[in-house]
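Field: sequence (string)
Field: structure_tokens (string)

Example rows 1 and 2, in order.
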Amino acid sequence: MRRPPAAALAVLALVAALFAVRALAADPDVLWKIVHDRCVPNQQQHADPAPCALVDLAGGEARGHAVLKDINGATQFLLIPTARVTGIEDKVVLAPDAPNYFAAAWAARPRVEALLGRPLPRDGVSLALNAPTGRTQNQLHIHVDCLAQGVRAALREQAAAIGAHWAPLPQPLAGHPYRAVRVAGADLAGIDPFRLLADSLPGGPAAMASHTLVVVGATLPDGQDGFVLLDDQANPATADFASGEELQDHSCHGY
């Protein structure tokens, strides 16, 4: 039998990975297993990140990250550490030498655009990290995808309320109360969303476990490139699970 071409093998590997994710959807470690057991070894042994789209081990496995196409949505990708990092509550993310996972997630946005087939406006790109109460996986993963058009419009309408210090938004997003802060920068190099959130919480780092964190591209009032950081706190009484992914649209409708 003739060996399938390399491109066909890559497609088959991706399909197999997607079926594996579906089959193990109840397994909270499935993302870790895909990255640690398949993507990283394949990159190290064959210079091929499959079934991931990218494995970056430039700083070593302890500081690396992988980019994986999510099974949900046509354009959604996940940024996943190659080290064992549980999530927003993991103290590792606040270590002085911690990798800048949000910067790496922002750098992955061209993959969303490639699948969409056109460029996205800066304020149409979002990076979402869910709280433990709003996620199914016990490996940190940042959702990289389109911001929902309704949320995009709401942020534009409330732009005057978003300043250099964390403050509640006047109106809810996706039915939940979010706080917001703006930061300047063309990218997230030198900007640590984890630290900015932790330093703003009355409980400090210990309070991170009940929060979600979303980063959205923005053009600031002075015309500079920047970002809006969004935070919501879980509230069981109102069925608010602090799942910032709710602000995204995995169909990229309207872009």
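Row 2 begins here:
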Amino acid sequence: MGLWYTEKQTDNLAISMQVRQNLHRERSPYQDIAVMETEEYGKLLVIDDAVMLTTADEFVYHELIAHVPMFTHGSVQRAAVIGGGDGGTIRELVRHDSLQEAYLLELDERVVRVSQQYLPELASGLSDPRVRLEFGDGIKRIAEFKSYFDLVIVDSTDPVGPGVVLFSQEFFKLVRESLRPGGLMVAQTESPFVNRDLMADVRRKIGSVFPQTYVYLGPIPTYPSGLWSFTMGSTGPNPHEVDLEKVAEITADWPLRYYTAQIHTAVLTLPPFVQEIYNSK
């Protein structure tokens, strides 16, 4: 039968992957961290028994959470990523020439160090000289910035344990205060199949803080249900008004695997069942 890793994604849903070998496991001061080599999805990063990413599909998540807001803004100079210790989001941000400074605000330094050792394909961007690595409470740190960033990305874990506060209205207010005029934020907001109430609640909270909110979707097979949502709060820029010809020109030589100018438009087109989540609230 071999060795299998199983994540219980909800009370009624689980995903299992056959494991070729265990690469690493440790207990950091904050959480349990494991890296495995799977037969189907490449390397797998698990934190506290929850799938964080696999190297087979992480590019969808990281390209969408980074490039949709970057091109929506158009000229991001300063960005912050809260969470995201694997480095995948930073890897995508540093592709942009406009970027002058990117803070990675990660609670657990061991997530970064483990990723640098076992997931170098994700962590490669962390060595970029524009990147500032800071370890500790990202919420307290973001509160120290006022009108500083053009973009804040909340690359968080699920809303359990320490991650709950990253889905609160109070946190979104701190993020808004950290942004310069014309700035925006994006957060991962779970699955429209299994987290309908959370998605509606988060959009309502972001909408109470930002004048404009937008939702977009992407397929990530190893996340619950395989369909994932991202919610953007904007002080002005509209993702529907991006210059797609410019996107195509800039990304023409990038080694992207999911995001394109056409995908930018497609992910913002919500199917009726997702629209119903927000219309019913």
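free_text_note (row 2): The chain has a mean pLDDT of 95.
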